[in-house]
Amino acid sequence: MKQFILGTAGHIDHGKTALIKALTGVDTDRLKEEKARGITIELGFAALNLPGGQHLGIVDVPGHEKFIKNMVAGVTGIDIVAMVIAADEGVMPQTREHLEICTLLGVQHGVVVLTKTDLVDEEWLELAREDIKDFVHGTFLQDAPMLPVSALTGSGIPELVATLDELCGRIPERPHSDLFRLPIDRVFSMKGFGTVITGTLISGKVQVGDTVMIYPSQTTSKVRGIQFHNESVAQAHAGMRTAINFQGLDKSAVFRGQVVAGAGTLAPSFMLDVSLQYLASSKKPLKNRSRIRFHTGTSEVLGNLILLETDELMPGETAVVQIRLDTPLATVKDDRYVIRSYSPVRTIGGGRVLNPIPPKHKRFKAEIVQGLEGILAGDAEKNIAYYAGEAGYNGVSFAGLRIMTNLPEKQLQQTLQNLMSSKILIQIDKENKVYLHNSSLEQLKQDALAHLKNYHQINPLKDGMSKEELKSKFPAILTARFFNQVLNQMVKDNEIVQEENSIRLKTHTVSLGGDQTDIKNKILETYRQDGLTPPYFRELSGKLSVDASRAKDMLMLLINEGRIIKTKDDLYFHADTIAELKNRIVDFLQSHGEMTPTQFKDMTGLSRKYLIPLLEYFDSQNVTIRVGDIRRLRSR
């Protein structure tokens, strides 16, 4: 059985609620205040089984201008709009605003229902028809059926049902999406059930037992039960008015405007890139950084509108813009939205989301505007390449691309494979499916060369930069494995030299001035002469009357060259001294099998100050192995 959602629209007191009661027998005004005031304030819900076998969920929206935000929430996810216009009043202000909202939200199918026909004569009814034809001309309702009805007498109701049945029979089903999403329009508690939410399931499916997440708060819960028009079902799918009750979820943690989706499938963001249609009915130019009310799904969030290529937008113009929100929203590409002015409150425009998780853009950047305009063309490969290019070194993940493209999973996988085959994208993290644009890879190489050049300029006496220090200059998302692959390629391209953990430019050499050579030779000679009993280095630099910083640079250079050996506790030895001592230790152990600290002391005549650091050094170099208090020759 096909599932469709019908939403009402129209001015206050034009008979929307009465029409639904005439169609279904359900009074959708459930609040005491609604009964007392005789107007719809909150969303109401009903259902109708059509003769052709289709099921029609119905959302009744308020018509009063004060409750437009509730109306926008109700129109989300509808397939058909019933534009209700009273025959005795004709087109009114909220009739116009509701039509604008439906157009901005992408509603494509509808009927015009001319209500209260029992209050007018035939001549007046014909005048109303002509007025409405002019009103809907050029809109998606231009060729829609116009049906005169009376909820009071029942006149025209059978014809309306037949028209809806025929319309549902030819409307295509919603495009397939793997993403389960349900914008919440109502939250309440029921004894024995706990917290219950309702909404129109706009994509994907959900079943009892699924673990879901509430966005943007990212609260996790489990689906305890699902109802579809007061009947328990095992699962619900796109197009169904759905009620879900959750396991162990407090009512205070959920509210209208949030979205229920699969755990980890959406990403809340304070920014959105969107296409904007600024309504021609607006009275003045729309300026950059205008304060707005942003409506999407069932949410209303305050924010600022950032014009990317101009300082103001004239009524009737379109543009790509960035929305910066006060609180985050979890959306996907092509989600429809409406914006209303902050004060006075009026609908001024809307459009669709181009990138639900964009970076913060600078204004007047032609490449950004061109990239966003390119997304409107709908080429999946070009869009993904643009998103990846914008992401830079951070790359784009498969999970992120699901919401940035809104493609079915298999189609997304194939598109990514095509981009990798053509060398436009490189997969930098196989486990988490993260992709980097080829241009970012080339930029990474250039930046690595720039970091090395800068390092050599600051540290001319150091042979190279440690690999860990170089990697720290880039985002943590770059895995060590991928970073090593890039470095290896740069080595093959003869751009850098890698020696153990040190990296330098191919062109870098350490060249010393005359005074630097003199300092270097003095340090080396001192360690050669002092043999196994050198001073601490801090004492040596004072003894040679050399600036400590310059002396340290020379010492590090000698260590890098392998001519000075560091043990610990600020003790350094000449490499020849260490090599000679190593041979003596090996000879001793080959003859005696083991050596105690006392035997080592007798061999060298050293005090504990030198004895322990040297023993531990040879342990660390895998010459000896410590067993209790003795040393043995390590097996090779």
- The chain-level mean pLDDT equals 88
Task: Output the CATH topology of the largest domain.
Answer: Rossmann fold
Query: Helical proportion?
Result: 25-40%
Q: CATH-wise, what's the superfamily of the largest domain?
A: P-loop containing nucleotide triphosphate hydrolases
Low-pLDDT segments, ≥5 res:
none
CATH arch. level architecture of the largest domain = 3-Layer(aba) Sandwich
The count of helical stretches stands at 19
What fraction of residues sit in β-strands?
25-35%
- Strand runs, count: 35
Name of the CATH first level of the largest domain? Alpha Beta
| Cα radius of gyration in angstroms | 37 Å
Shape: elongated
Features:
636 residues, alpha+beta, Rossmann fold, Elongation Factor Tu (Ef-tu), domain 3, 35 strands, 35% helix, elongated
What does this structure look like?
The N and C termini lie far apart (76 Å). Strands 7, 8, 9, 11, 12, 13, 15 and 16 form an eight-stranded antiparallel beta sheet that branches. The chain has a six-stranded mixed beta sheet with strand order 2-3-1-4-5-6, with helices on both faces. The protein has five domains: 3-170, P-loop containing nucleotide triphosphate hydrolases (Rossmann fold, 3-Layer(aba) Sandwich); 181-262, Elongation Factor Tu (Ef-tu), domain 3; 269-371, Translation factors (Elongation Factor Tu (Ef-tu), domain 3, Beta Barrel); 378-511, Arc Repressor Mutant, subunit A; 513-636, Winged helix-like DNA-binding domain superfamily/Winged helix DNA-binding domain (Arc Repressor Mutant, subunit A), CATH 1.10.10. It is elongated and about 125 Å long. α7 (366-377) runs antiparallel to α8 and α8 crosses α10 (409-421). The chain is α+β, with helices and mostly antiparallel strands. It has 19 helices and 35 strands.
